[in-house]
Amino acid sequence: MPLLFVLVWGQVSFISFCALVRYVVDISPPAFLKANMKSLCVPPRTTAHAENLVLKCLTKLLEFIDKLIFPLHTDPNMVNAGDMNGSGNLMDFLDEPFPDVGTYEDFHTIDWLREKSRDTDRHRKITSKSKESIWEFIKSLLDAWSGWVVMLLIGLLAGTLAGVIDLAVDWMTDLKEGVCLSAFWYSHEQCCWTSNETTFDDRDKCPQWQKWSELLVSQSEGASAYILNYFLYIIWALCFAFLAVSLVRVFAPYACGSGIPEIKTILSGFIIRGYLGKWTLLIKTVTLVLVVSSGLSLGKEGPLVHVACCCGNFFSSLFSKYSKNEGKRREVLSAAAAAGVSVAFGAPIGGVLFSLEEVSYYFPLKTLWRSFFAALVAAFTLRSINPFGNSRLVLFYVEYHTPWYMAELFPFILLGVFGGLWGTLFIRCNIAWCRRRKTTRLGKYPVLEVIVITAITAIIAYPNPYTRRSTSELISELFNDCGALESSQLCDYINDPNMTRPVDDIPDRPAGPGVYSAMWQLALALVFKIVITIFTFGMKIPSGLFIPSMAVGAIAGRMVGIGVEQLAYHHHDWIIFRNWCRPGADCVTPGLYAMVGAAACLGGVTRMTVSLVVIMFELTGGLEYIVPLMAAAVTSKWVADAFGKEGIYEAHIHLNGYPFLDVKDEFTHRTLATDVMRPRRGEAPLSVLTQDSMTVEDVETLIKETDYNGFPVVVSRDSERLIGFAQRRELILAIKNARQRQDGVVSNSIVYFTEDPPEVPPNSPHPLKLRRILNLSPFTVTDHTPMETVVDIFRKLGLRQCLVTRSGRLLGIITKKDVLRHMAQMANQDPESIMFN
C-alpha cells in the first residue's frame, strides 16, 4: 500500500508539472510593455481571475528580465510586423489565426498532409524564435521534451490502472464463492497467505476464508451447501453484469466492446469525438473489472488498449503540440496502444510490435522510440505494484525442463490448423450474430441480452471446475508443467514407487483416473467456450477477445499434449518416438502444447504473426520455444487466410461501416479514376467556388444547400482551371469571424482567394480575403489514373479527397468514402454499407 501511495502521489506531481509546462509552452508573452499596467491593479473578481492576473504579472516580469539581458533582440519593427501585415488591413484580417480553424467535425477524416505541414511550420517557427531570447529557447526545450513527458505520464497511469484492475478482478472473482473473514478485501489466495494454519496439502483451504454456505448456514458439504453456493454464484454474476451494462448505457456508451477496431479507425485518421474521453476512461476501467469478475467469456486485454489510449488522449490534450494537431495526437495514441498491450500481457516489446503490426496506420521511427519508452514505464509501474504476487509481470510464467523435438512439429502444425479453423468459424459466426443484433429488435434490448448471456454462462459454468474459475487461472493451470508438488487433476499420474529421479526431471507416466476425468471436463469446457464466446463478444459491455481465444487453444493444446504423451509412453518403440523418447525419459510436455495451441487460436482470430510470437514468449518466459510458436502462428494464419483475409477487428470495422482503408487489402481491378469520381453522367455539376466573383451570400447559400466537406476553387466557371481547395468548416468559421471582427463585411461583399483584391466599384462594400484558408496544393490525379494507384495513394498519404483534372481543368472529385464504396462494389458487397463520411 505505501508503494501504491507513492505511485499515485508521483503521478499527481507529474500531472501538475505537465500542466505547468503546458502553460509555459502555450502562452506567448505579449509585446514589451504593450498592455496597460493599470489592468493588473484591478481587484480579482474570482479565483480564476486572480490566477490570470498572477500569470500576467509573471509573464511581464520575465519579459522585463529578458529585455534587460538581451536588449539587442528588442526590435519594435519585428514585434509589430504581424500587426502591420495582419490586422492593419481590414481585408487581410485572416492573416492572423482565429479560434477553431484547422479542427474537424465529428465522424470526419483528418487531412494527414495538412497536419504534417502545420507541424512542420510550427516546428520551424519555434526553432527560429528560440534564437531570439532565453525565454523562447526554454520554450523550445520544453516543446522538444513534451513528447517524452507525455509518454512517461501515459506509462505511469496505464500501469497503475492495470495493476488496480488486476487486483480488483482477483478479489471480485473470488467474492462470488466466498469471503475472507480477517479482511474482506482479500482474495482467496491473499487470505490464505496470511494464515498460519494452512497446510500444503490443503493450500486452498484456511479458516479465514469461508464459502457463502459456511458463512450463512454453517455447512461446507452436502447438497444444500452446493445449491446455496451455486445460487449465490449466479446472483453475484448477474449483479456484476447488470451494474456494468447499466453504467455503460447511462454514462459512456463508447465504453463497450473491445475498442481495438475503433482505435484502428481513429489512428487511420477518423474522428470519433468522446471515444477517448475522460468519462469513457473512467467507466471502462470500472466496468472492465465488473464484467471480467462476472465470469463471462471475455478478457480485459483488448479493453486495456482502449484504456491506455484514453490516457494518451487525456495527456496529449494538455499540450498544444498534440491537442491542436490531430496527426501528432495519433502518434501519441500509437505509443499508448503499445503501453496498453505492455500492461495487458506484461510484454513491453510485444506491445510495441503489436502497435506497429496490428493497430497503427502511421508509425514513424520517432514514434517507435517513444512507444518503447511508454511500454517500458508501463511495465515497470505494473511490476512495482506486483498484482499477481509472483514478482513477475505475468500470470502465465512457466518453466519447462524438457526441450522440444523435431517430431513434435507435426502436432504443433495440427494445432495451427485447428487455430485457423477456429478463427474462421468464430469470425463468421460472431459477425453473423452481431449483424443480426444490429438489424433486428435484439439490438434494442442490450441490458436484457447481457443478463441472459450472463445467466446462461453462470448456470453452465459452475458445475465444471475448469469453467467456474477465471479464464486467466484456467490458462495458467493448462500451461503449467506437472511437477512433484502439483495437486491438479491434470497431474494425477500413476507414479512408480521405485522412481529415484530428481523432482524436476519426472519421466512420462501412465495417466491416472484424475487425468481421464479432467480430459472429459476439458472437452466439455472446450465446446462451452467455443459456443458462448461467439455470443458474448460484441455485447454492450467491455469485452476483450485475447484471453477467451487463448483459453480455447490452451484447452485443445493440453488435450493434444496429453494424448501425445500417453502415445509416446505406451508406444515408445514406434519409429517416430524411438530416437528421442526412451522408456523412463521425460519426453513430452503437455503444457507446451497448451501454449502453442493458445498462440494458434489467437493468431487465427486476429491474424497476428510477429507480435503474437513475441507476446507469447514474453507472456510465458518460454524463449527457447519460439520455433513451435512460429510454426503454429504461420500455419494458423495460412489456414484462416484461405477462408478470408479479414481478422476479427477488420471484420467489425467493416460491420460498423468505419471508413478504414486497410493496407493489407489488395486492389487488383482495372478501373480508372474517371469511373469513380463524382459527378458522374446524369448528376448535377460539381459545386465549386470561384476565385474572385462570388459574394458572401453566394458562399453561404452554397454551404447551406450542400453537405460537402469542402469545395474546389477555380478561376471561373467557364475555364474550370483549378486554384485550390477550401474546407467547409473553415469557410463557415472564416465568414462568421469576419462578420464579428471586421466592419463592412456584408452579404454583398466579394469573397476572393487571390493575393490581390479584385477591382470593385467605389461604393461597394469591403471585399473579404479568404486566401489563408485555401489549400493551394490539393492532391490531384488525371482522369486516366488507374484506381489501383489511387487506392495506394489514399492509403499511404491518408488523403481525405483527391481532385481529378485533365490538363489543369477540374473534372471531378474522389473522396475516401467514394474509394471505399467502389472497393465494396468490386467485391460484390453493398456499397452503401459505408455509413460514415
UniProtKB/TrEMBL annotation:
Annotated transmembrane regions: 6-25, 145-165, 230-255, 276-296, 332-356, 409-433, 445-462, 518-538, 545-564, 592-617
Entry superkingdom: Eukaryota
PROSITE patterns found in the cross-reference section: CBS
A GO CC term assigned to this protein in UniProt: endosome membrane
Molecular functions (GO terms): antiporter activity; ATP binding; voltage-gated chloride channel activity
CDD domains on file: CBS_pair_voltage-gated_CLC_euk_bac, ClC_3_like
Record-linked InterPro entries: CBS_dom (IPR000644), CBS_dom_sf (IPR046342), Cl-channel_core (IPR014743), Cl_channel-4 (IPR002246), ClC (IPR001807)
Membrane topology recorded in Swiss-Prot or TrEMBL: Multi-pass membrane protein
The CBS domain, residue ranges: 677-741, 774-832
Cellular location(s): Endosome membrane; Membrane
Main localization (coarse): membrane
Keyword NADP: no
Gene3D superfamilies noted in UniProt: 3.10.580.20, 3.90.1280.20, Clc chloride channel
Protein family (similarity comment): Belongs to the chloride channel (TC 2.A.49) family.
Name under which the protein is recorded: Chloride channel protein
Phylogenetic classification of the source organism: Eukaryota, Metazoa, Chordata, Craniata, Vertebrata
